[in-house]
Design a protein that fits this description.
- The chain has 973 residues and is mainly beta.
- The protein is 8% helix and 40% strand.
- The chain is built from eight helices and 59 strands.
- The strands form 14 sheets. The protein has an eight-stranded antiparallel beta sheet with strand order 5-36-39-49-41-42-43-44, with no helix packed on it. Strands 37, 38, 40, 45, 46, 47, 48 and 50 form an eight-stranded antiparallel beta sheet that branches.
- The radius of gyration is 32 Å and the shape is globular.
């Protein structure tokens, strides 16, 4: 790859020479962007996630894809190998793995993923879809990216995995990251190094107010607290302040600290508020404790809100500042926008006089050479894939974990009732006790006894019992109770919960209708880290603020039960998390951490294999939601491979070999979130049937899993003896805006396609934020009866053309790219870049020789080839000259001959310098070679090198290169 694409930001040093295996060297040192010799007809379109118009302008929001909670950091030109400002951006990925993507840009408009901070955030149950646990809508949130002292730092919070973490590396693109747990949760943590105070590290955080902590110099612990530095109440009468008040990010600009915060005032849209002060810590730094911060509404236009200020270097040492703020654009997701600012009196006005229209145009703040602009526009956050296992290796892929030993289980505590006095027949309330003001009493009911729970004022008001030392880590418990209430809401949800000091853990829950005895039941696996020595078991109703009507309902309770089940608990294993020899491209992320035993790119060359590792239980629920709503089978399935969708419309195509499916298996192509639409093959009683599933809001708390994923009537297609099927999903996010509608098609040969029913949807934002990310494409395979079934996916092909548009297949761009490649001279390019282009060309030519059935089949090879052609455009050597050396014996002395070949279309001047003399050639003609023998007058010459420089006027621009060319050692008689 050329340095423009993958050079690592490190302290500047001399450019290293390429290692030479032989004494023939193509001069590539000091690469500079040169206008490519492009055929007029090769003008590739911008990528699917680029809004660069190719004329010096771009539209907002950027990227057309889900990139929320952005944090942008600049690495100045003086501090990296590339000699120009580099920009990196990080985002939220919650339950996805790998996670915390690092994106890179040269112009702040076009971005590509270059790394991930982690492969998996945790090996515990909730991040791995094990034992009923999940991390939907939780996991990694709101990362902060900072560069300081030659190192990169990332801080983020986890809502369910032990609080906040700080990662660091000295190589943001290829290095491994070191993780430090901070031991507590910081909401939307923003790391800031105060250079005015020697680089002292702080984390700003909070929702509803902004606080800060000072970290130790090694960034491993909190050493000071500064609560409530910024509070809405400190700025009375400010109409731009209101809800949220979070996502703080700090910058120091011209003597003042600026804090960017998102707010959502009542009756208004989400907006940006800016706070400014000469004192970072506000009232903690003033003599009289007064608040020195001023507040200003900075942007209130079309919901562009949370994000950061971004510096842009200008001539004369001046710095401009833009805003990178995202906008809710569901179901695509939360999409960032680069918004220019006009500054006056130390305050910015963003957009055009404060207005930022959706799809509005702005001038690019950083202009590059034409060749560089072409390359940047080809970069994308999404990608087609032929599953060739040729993705670049990254350090996160080698992430290692220490696998804990499975917990010891006391089997005498399994299968027995752990609740004492479960049916209240002992004649006493004990060992039950009241909590939060509730009154407990025994009450006869139909010849038996129940517990009456009265005087409730809070959701937690009710009975509890200590289960100290009897619950066991890793054991699954059947938990149940009978409940009845006489007056109140039509239904009340009751939670059977445990608390061992890590917050209330709902073990079972259910909706109880008024006036009817109802059994609330469920299963719960105690986490491996639970402190089971002291556990309180309680019956509660759901919490809300303010307290809901259910918090005052009086009820009867009977037959409470907690019984440990035979141990079938899954435990993490080394094979599950160890690398398996397969490397996916950076556009892919798994839905939760994968089980590496059950996916492969090597079992069948050129195919992705997904194997069902377990049978789904149907027992999973959303741990994030107070109502404990159930997950579908699709959501419970592990090893679903996903990519972002892109707007306003897009298409994904795959080929599925389902010969290895077992009865009860379901596999296919999904456009998914909590709501989803998918086309899938189901195998039932040995017969395979294709159809479409569509799950939309409202989402019930309890439901029949099989019914929820039954085929839409009119979409079922028996597949008979077929073992392969091509699937295609076309999604529209603009018909209407705010909804996703998908039309699925299938083919048995890839050429003749059939629509599977009508378009399905609408997919919309789930207001519970159970997932809280944009809809994604997914490839999946799950089992409902027996594990071990396999499916193979041959490819994943993207396009922005939909079948419903009725357009003829267009190969113009593909033909132009192939034609342009044929005009290029390999001597003009580094070997690695040339080889990558030739491989993309080989695949494009092979595709062109076959018949096409969809635009996806045309666009995927064209996009891949155009990207490699664009890379060549910036990798072209300044002067294409090849130099070689040879040594021989001329009598008793060694003779060293240096030969230079000109591969340019213009004359080249060459100078050769050796320890044994120098020689110059002027105007070496195109295609010609010049050589000169140097007599060393020595009988024994050690291996060494000679210096060769070449200069010419290429494309009207004077250019030169220099290289050290190795020569062999030789001894003569």
């Amino acid at each position: 790859m050329p340095p423009l694409v993958h050079s690592r930001p490190r302290p500047r040093r001399l450019m290293r020479m390429l290692p030479a295996a032989a004494a023939t060297v193509l001069l590539t040192a000091g690469l500079v962007p040169v206008t490519a010799h492009a055929a007029d007809e090769w003008t590739p379109a911008s990528s699917y996630t680029s809004t660069d118009k190719g004329d010096g302008s771009y539209s907002v929001p950027l990227l057309n894809s889900d990139v929320p909670d952005v944090s942008v950091e600049r690495v100045p030109a003086a501090e990296n190998d590339e000699g120009r400002d580099l920009y990196y951006m990080i985002s939220t990925t919650m339950h996805l793995s790998p996670g915390a993507p690092v994106m890179k840009s040269y112009d702040l408009v076009n971005w590509e993923v270059v790394n991930y901070v982690f492969d998996r955030l945790d090996i515990g149950d909730s991040f791995s879809l094990r034992n009923g646990q999940n991390s939907y809508g939780q996991g990694q949130w709101a990362s902060s990216l900072r560069y300081h002292g030659g190192k990169f730092y990332v801080a983020f919070n986890t809502n369910n995995l032990g609080g906040s973490y700080l990662y660091s590396t000295d190589d943001i693109e290829d290095g491994a990251w070191t993780r430090v747990p901070l031991g507590r949760a910081f909401h939307d943590p923003s790391l800031f190094f105060d250079e005015r105070d020697g680089g002292t590290p702080y984390i700003f955080y909070g929702s509803g107010s902004t606080s800060a902590v000072k970290l130790s110099p090694d960034l491993t612990r909190v050493v000071a607290e500064y609560p409530n530095i910024l509070r809405p109440a400190d700025f009375p009468g400010s109409p731009f302040l209101g809800g949220l008040f979070e996502g703080a990010q700090v910058q120091y600009i011209d003597g003042n600290y600026y804090v960017v915060i998102i707010t959502w005032p009542s009756g208004q849209g989400r907006q940006v508020v800016l706070f400014r002060s000469p004192h970072l810590l506000g009232r903690y730094a003033t003599a009289d404790g007064a608040n020195p911060y001023q507040a200003r509404g900075a942007l209130n236009s079309n919901g562009f809100a949370q994000g950061s200020l971004v510096p842009i270097s200008r001539d004369g040492g001046r710095t401009d500042w833009h805003g990178m703020f995202f906008r809710d654009s569901f179901p695509v997701g939360r999409i960032p926008a680069l918004i220019p600012a006009t500054w006056q009196d130390g305050w910015p006005t963003f957009g055009t006089a404060g207005a930022v229209p959706v799809n509005g145009l702005f001038d690019k703040p950083i202009r590059l050479s034409p060749a560089e602009e072409t390359l940047e526009r080809q970069k994308s956050l999404v990608a087609s894939d032929d599953f060739a296992n040729d993705a670049p290796h990254k350090a996160y892929m080698d992430e290692r974990w220490t696998i804990p030993s499975p917990p010891d289980v006391d089997e005498s505590l399994l299968g027995v009732e752990l609740v004492r006095n479960p049916g209240f027949e002992s004649g006493a309330v004990t060992p039950w006790a009241a909590q939060f003001g509730a009154r407990l009493a025994l009450e006869p009911v139909d010849g038996a006894t129940a517990l009456k729970v009265a005087d409730r004022t809070l959701n937690g008001s009710g009975p509890n019992q200590q289960l100290d030392g009897v619950l066991q880590r890793g054991v699954t418990y059947a938990v149940s109770a009978r409940v009845k209430y006489a007056a109140g809401p039509a239904t009340v949800r009751f939670n059977l919960a445990a608390d061992w000091g890590a917050g209330v853990q709902v073990m079972a829950s259910g909706d109880v209708p008024v006036g009817r005895w109802t059994t609330v039941s469920g299963r719960y696996t105690v986490p491996a880290a639970a402190a089971v020595d002291k556990v309180k078991f309680a019956v509660e109703t759901p919490w809300a603020n303010p307290q809901p009507p259910s918090s005052t309902v009086e009820y009867l309770l009977d037959d409470v039960s907690v019984v440990g089940q035979p141990v079938t608990t899954e435990h993490p294993t080394e094979a599950e998390v160890a690398p398996n020899g397969s490397r996916l491209g950076l556009a892919w992320e798994w839905n939760h951490a994968p089980d590496n035993r059950h996916w492969s790119l090597t079992d069948r060359e050129g195919w992705l294999r997904l194997t069902t590792g377990k049978v789904l239980t149907g027992d999973y629920v959303y741990g994030k939601l107070s109502n404990r709503a159930g997950l579908t089978w699709f959501e419970e399935a592990r090893n679903t491979l996903s990519q972002r969708t892109f707007g306003p419309k897009g298409s994904a195509e795959t080929k599925l070999d389902f010969a290895g499916m077992k009865d009860g298996d379901v596999a296919g192509l999904a456009m998914y979130n909590r709501g989803f639409s998918y086309a899938a093959v189901k195998r039932v009683d040995g017969r395979a049937t294709l159809g479409v599933v569509n799950r939309v809001q409202p989402f019930p708390v309890t439901f029949d899993r099989a019914a929820a994923e039954s085929f839409v009537p009119g979409t079922e297609v028996p597949l008979g003896d077929a073992t392969e099927v091509h699937l295609k999903g076309d999604v529209e996010f603009d018909a209407p805006t705010g909804q996703g509608w998908t039309t699925f098609h299938y083919s048995l040969d890839g050429l003749n396609w059939h629509r599977l029913g009508q378009r399905v949807g609408p997919q919309t934002l789930d207001g519970s934020l159970a997932h809280f990310m944009g809809h994604r494409w997914g490839l999946f395979n799950y089992a409902t009866k027996q594990a071990g079934g396999t499916v193979d996916f041959d490819h994943f092909l993207l396009s922005d053309t939909l079948t419903a548009q009725g357009e003829p297949l267009d190969t113009t761009a593909l033909d132009a790219a192939i034609a342009h490649a044929s005009t290029l001279d390999e001597h003009h390019y580094p070997a690695a870049a040339w080889s990558a282009m030739r491989e993309a060309l080989r695949k494009a030519q092979a595709a062109r020789r076959t018949a096409f059935g969809t635009q996806n089949q045309v666009d995927a090879p064209e996009r891949a080839l155009s990207l490699e052609l664009a890379r060549l455009g910036v990798a072209r050597v300044p002067v294409a000259v090849r130099a070689s050396t040879r040594t021989r014996c001329a009598g008793p002395h060694v003779q060293l001959t240096v030969e230079v070949a000109n591969h340019e279309a213009v004359p080249v001047d060459v100078s050769i310098t050796t320890p044994y003399g120098a020689k110059s050639f002027r105007d070496v003609p195109p295609g010609k070679t010049r050589s000169h023998p140097f007599t060393t007058r020595e009988s024994d010459v050690p291996a060494g090198s000679v210096s060769v420089t070449a200069s010419a006027t290429v494309d009207g621009v004077p250019r030169s290169v220099a290289l050290e060319v190795p020569h062999d050692g030789r001894a003569c008689e």
